[in-house]
Amino acid sequence: MKNRVQDITPLPTEWIGPISITGNVMEEQVSVPMATYETPLWPSTGRGARVSRQAGGVRCTLVDERMTRSVVVRAKDGGAAFSAWQSISSRSDEIQAVIATTSRFAKLVDMNRQIVGNLLFIRFECETGDASGHNMVTGAADALLGWILQEYPELEYASISGNLCTDKKVSAVNGILGRGKYVIAEMEISRELCTKQLRTTPEKMAQLNLEKNLIGGTVAGSLRSANAHFANMLLAFFLATGQDAANIIEGSQGIVHAEARPEGLYFSCTLPNLIVGSVGSGKGNSVVEQNLVRLGCKEDRAPGENGRRLAVLCAATVLCGELSLLAAQTNPGELMRTHFKMERG
Amino acid sequence: MKNRVQDITPLPTEWIGPISITGNVMEEQVSVPMATYETPLWPSTGRGARVSRQAGGVRCTLVDERMTRSVVVRAKDGGAAFSAWQSISSRSDEIQAVIATTSRFAKLVDMNRQIVGNLLFIRFECETGDASGHNMVTGAADALLGWILQEYPELEYASISGNLCTDKKVSAVNGILGRGKYVIAEMEISRELCTKQLRTTPEKMAQLNLEKNLIGGTVAGSLRSANAHFANMLLAFFLATGQDAANIIEGSQGIVHAEARPEGLYFSCTLPNLIVGSVGSGKGNSVVEQNLVRLGCKEDRAPGENGRRLAVLCAATVLCGELSLLAAQTNPGELMRTHFKMERG
Amino acid sequence: MKNRVQDITPLPTEWIGPISITGNVMEEQVSVPMATYETPLWPSTGRGARVSRQAGGVRCTLVDERMTRSVVVRAKDGGAAFSAWQSISSRSDEIQAVIATTSRFAKLVDMNRQIVGNLLFIRFECETGDASGHNMVTGAADALLGWILQEYPELEYASISGNLCTDKKVSAVNGILGRGKYVIAEMEISRELCTKQLRTTPEKMAQLNLEKNLIGGTVAGSLRSANAHFANMLLAFFLATGQDAANIIEGSQGIVHAEARPEGLYFSCTLPNLIVGSVGSGKGNSVVEQNLVRLGCKEDRAPGENGRRLAVLCAATVLCGELSLLAAQTNPGELMRTHFKMERG
Amino acid sequence: MKNRVQDITPLPTEWIGPISITGNVMEEQVSVPMATYETPLWPSTGRGARVSRQAGGVRCTLVDERMTRSVVVRAKDGGAAFSAWQSISSRSDEIQAVIATTSRFAKLVDMNRQIVGNLLFIRFECETGDASGHNMVTGAADALLGWILQEYPELEYASISGNLCTDKKVSAVNGILGRGKYVIAEMEISRELCTKQLRTTPEKMAQLNLEKNLIGGTVAGSLRSANAHFANMLLAFFLATGQDAANIIEGSQGIVHAEARPEGLYFSCTLPNLIVGSVGSGKGNSVVEQNLVRLGCKEDRAPGENGRRLAVLCAATVLCGELSLLAAQTNPGELMRTHFKMERG
User: Does C60 fall in a domain?
Assistant: First the structure.
């Protein structure tokens, strides 16, 4: 069997919305594209978008942003590893300068270390403008590793990536120290809207979130994760906008918090690790570029603003899909009925 | 802004290989498709495939298969929840019969329970033929939940999915109890091949796996996960074959084990949660169907055999890509040089 | 400096209660001993015991019991490891017989396996009568390992303990597969009792449990753990009754579930991994023996009954202490005031 | 049954060693007390101590120290929570001043936040002199919470402890951000010593650590933990020195890293969360005080120095016990033979 380049896998894609969005990044109604084989996701997320327009919008708060790469070097022993770290961590100006030689966007935000025996792991955390920044921080880490091995000849190369980064893998470190955009999406939904649009009540939603996402997640041995299906919306949005979609792994580690209040439902999705960029990936893919343009993420803005807008659009999409699925699960039998009807219809 | 259905997102796809495969499912050389925006993945995985052909093949052992869905019901108290479980768990024949009404392929393999206070979580584990089985087990669980609520009127509906399943989320339960196919892919690589094809040594590879994947993963707060980038290969293979690609989350929770032996490198990738199917998803997508045909996964075989073949092909692909990236990371600077050359060139 | 045997470390100990207990193991009011340097634990747990007597008792449901030890052996490759497992797992009668040669109490309940590359981990799970069973299962595993290496000469010894057991370490496996006693302790507390004895309300308690134990635990990167301080009560009870107190690590991985109901507070502590025994440890320590006698755990009963009684007493103690501390934390400032007042006397 | 105060539980205690210790805190040979019901721990740890004296000592590197408490407050929404955090985090001088009113030893080292929906968790990290600092940081957090609620009346009290601290519970946060002393204990052991004293080889030890602690731990679903039994030594040392022994839970989350080198075995125990103090706990217990005096931890030194010495002594003890047990486990049958001989003999 001979290899042959096949141009494309055609991924079914539909625009959902518009979603009404407010918060510290944007105030606007925007439709979003979702590329997925799981087509019931479209009407389900669409229902959440409809609620957003009637409920005053999804409030999206961007809390933090950074991209990370960790290197690991080998010292003679733990004492030497610690001494090296003390010295390296005191030279942030020089480190900043080394990074500046690799990119005009990358800027050091913080460094963290773990020392295990004689192994020194250093996690470099950078701002990366509008890019998600995988390559930018890898380039920076590569240069920094060269600099470290030159300045500290007693250290040995172990790996350009020490898994403390951590990229496309389950971890606690990304949530605790940050990787990608940290976005909180939330909405207050009146009792009337709960009933009419979501066929549920605030009390049912809060109880489901407690019993399924929090307690069910706990017994499943989850890690920094309490939600129903963030991954579905993330994947569809990532693929339609040219992201490195394997980062749904970090992205999936988010938390739903819901409260039944006298006036209705408070519903929030916290996404501490949303790794998206409006430049850099999916290059040369004209559909992806068009999608980004249509989302308003290719505008002439200060570096980082298009990227943040994209993150907020993604978080709002996650909330719409999560809200709708959870509402369906509050009623026995509804999930199967609607899912199959949509999928087969 | 008005919604409009957009047909497709065109995902760059290339066939890699052939990979030489042996083991308890198949003995054959097969090329595999990878759909991805991260195009350096193609030559990198291709290098692993080349090694497989020269090293006698990737041995793939299928250890287990099952698909799961958990329901959660509410009892008066923990004592009542336990009594209900004792009764339900003794009625597996009736449960088997209820499942049989929902699908001719779904067969109960096992049940597990967790009780938290008055909440009873039951995890139903089924064989699902050639399908990955998401819908099949959800359908079964829906019927079982109806049956349970009828037979045990003292129980209340809490959720059709209690997150003990767990689908598309980080967990420990899937690895420990099983979800999807459990496949071990492994290869012995001579010292000569290590040097010539991978520019590394068995000792360097074993040390990198120890320091980066195992220790680095540990300090990152990983959970049942020790690898560099299983997720990349999984995503590309899943998208090209019409899988529910959000299941890369479970899939990414796998383990590399490598040993330096006198004769060369022993290298293995253990994937306990490979969720794939040769039927059922990506329906109507002719490219996906063609890919499955070309992979030999649409043959007229006993139920489950096409699905198992697909799982083995996927695991072998993961090994090829993992081997190649780790080899690159044993050498300072190589990752950046080759990655950028491939991406930009 | 020369070594010298020092007889004892005198650990302050007080009896708390009585706690009123109901459920599937016992119905009785029993006082319990707590050995601790953290003396405010006594009045705090005592308050919970007082509530138990007025609220109709702590209902304790024993759900499961087993003790475990895992061995690990090395095969030529993953295929050989899997073949060995298939054979071994089919010979449970012989395994049962090997175990019987090591103890008259140990009985095989289940076996589980994990295969990583060429490594085969087998987790043996046994009933162990009234003993916590550490030594009993280690003895059984030692004999089984000898038997395995004799019957399967293609396997090599790797370790008598493969950490899949897992003893005195954080894990998900113990909660999911079971280790020690699985006990649910729960209580319904009227609104009046909440106000008078606990200075709180059902709503405040449920909200605190949600926000602190479940959500706070999630962001902390907890694993199968959602409580405030199970460990304190476990430690004090374990030390006073001669347990292997390092098992508080598994024990601490438990879950509080609380609900505000019209009639009051539903409060539960689920302890899936309570490792206690009424025989076997702390031998020759007469105070410990007296404590066990006073607890009614040295009676002439069927094997296992004294051990189960001890587990239930321990779980009820945990609930009393957890309830009291959480109630204090619902009120700003109360924790510090009462803690320091108690500690400073 | 009437309650009665029982003075003490007498815990068997023996002094082990002396252990030879070097590193950045002390250079000295010191015997250590271990209070435990599991008496085989004494000779086993003693064997490790003997090796330390012949191998040039356990090198102990203190990397960090801090004690933590997290509060949680409720805002109107996530946007308000983030605004409050931005303001609070900019006022570290005032926060330092509030802390200073509660203790002359507590000093703010860092603050971390997690925001989940409308919930703001703030983790205060302080130096606490020679005390482990539980009460000191709780007192500081209590004052800070009062100050926050006064300065930011839009925030509501949720809990004085938000479990992001996190105390006596499994977590990833403590290892990543730090809690207690971070100590690396390590030793190089010649091949001759491996053979004569430990009946093993460097290669066997490195392989056992890989297969059991790292891979076995991974399949068990461990979290930031790769060791055999740190908990045993921690518990015995903590009880003999009046520590809050429930902190063995954090303490147990440490990592063994071992390497076979041409000249012998490199063996290290990394303990990122060693929570000990030479003042403050076990007050009025004269045996504990005598033990601390004998350990040289009640000297007239700068604040913190006695506490750091105690942490290093504890870490060295952990290494001695871990080394000895792992060595025993490299040989089939040895664990059982020696354990039972010691326990029964």
Answer: yes
**Residue A4 falls within a domain, yes or no?**
no
Which residue, among B70, B85, B115, B163, would best test binding to A if mutated, counting the most A CBs under 10 Å from its CB? B163
Q: Is the pTM of this model over 0.90?
A: yes
Contact yes or no for C229/D167 (Cβ under 8 A): yes
User: In this structure, are B57 and B75 located in the same domain?
Assistant: no
Look at residues B17, B13, B14, B26 and name the one whose alpha carbon lies nearest to residue B49.
B17
B324 and B292 share one domain: yes
Per-residue pLDDT of B32-84, as tens digits, reads: 999 999 989 999 999 999 999 999 999 999 999 999 999 999 999 999 999 99
- Whether C168 maps to a domain, the answer reads no
Q: Cα separation of B213 and B216, whole Å?
A: 6
- Mean pLDDT in each 10-residue stretch from start to end of chain C (345 residues)? 60 96 98 95 97 98 98 98 98 98 96 98 97 96 97 98 97 98 98 98 98 98 98 98 97 98 98 96 80 96 97 98 98 80 59
Domain total of chain A: 2
> Per the structure block, which two tokens stand in for D298?
């009640």
Q: Do B173 and C177 touch (CB under 8 A)?
A: no
Q: Is A339 a catalytic residue?
A: yes
Domain with D96, as residue range(s), is 67-159
Shared domain check, A258 and A273 = yes
Contact B235 A245 (CB under 8 A): yes
Query: What CATH number did the domain enclosing A299 receive?
Result: 3.90.770.10
For chains A and B, what is the number of CB pairs under 8 angstroms?
Answer: 334
User: pLDDT tens, A68-99?
Assistant: 999 999 999 999 999 999 999 999 999 999 99
Same domain, B133 and B272: no
Pairwise CB contact (< 8 Å): D118 & A266: yes
User: Are B140 and B260 within one domain?
Assistant: no
Residue of A nearest to D182 (CA): A115
Contact yes or no for D219 and C15 at CB 8 A: no
Which one of D65, D176, D257 would you mutate to disrupt binding with A, by most A Cβ within 10 Å of its Cβ?
D176
The reply to whether D7 falls in a domain is no
Quick one: which H or E segment has residue A268? strand A264-274
Omega prior to C18 cis, within 30 of 0: yes
Which residues, at least 6 apart from D181, have a Cβ–Cβ distance to it below 8 Å? D62, D64, D65, D271, D273, D274, D275, D276, D307, D308, D311, D315
How many other C-beta atoms are found inside a 10 Å radius of the C-beta of residue A101? 12
**What is the number of other CB atoms lying within 10 angstroms of the CB of residue B279?**
20
DSSP A233: H
Give the length of chain C. Answer: 345
The two structure tokens encoding residue D216: 């076995």
Nearest CA in chain B to D219: B224
Q: Is B116 exposed, middle or buried (0-12, 13-18, 19+ CB in 10 A)?
A: buried
Residue among C139, C142, C225 whose CB faces D169 most closely: C225
Q: How far apart are CA A222 and CA A225, in angstroms?
A: 6
Based on the residue annotation, tell me whether A77 is a catalytic residue of this protein: no
3-state secondary structure chain B: CCCCEEEEEEEEEEEEEEEEEEECCCCEEEEEEEECCCCCHHHHHHHHHHHHHHCCCEEEEEEEEEEEEEEEEECCCHHHHHHHHHHHHCCHHHHHHHHHCCCCCCEEEEEEEEEECCEEEEEEEEECCCECCHHHHHHHHHHHHHHHHHHCCCCEEEECCCCCCCCCCCCCHHHHHCCEEEEEEEEEEEHHHHHHHHCCCHHHHHHHHHHHHHHHHHHCCCCCCECCCHHHHHHHHHHHCCCCHHHHHHHCCCEEEEEEECCEEEEEEEEEEECCCCECCCCCCHHHHHHHHHCCCCCCCCCCHHHHHHHHHHHHHHHHHHHHHHHHHCCCCHHHHHHHHHHHC
Contact D79, D35 (CB under 8 A): no
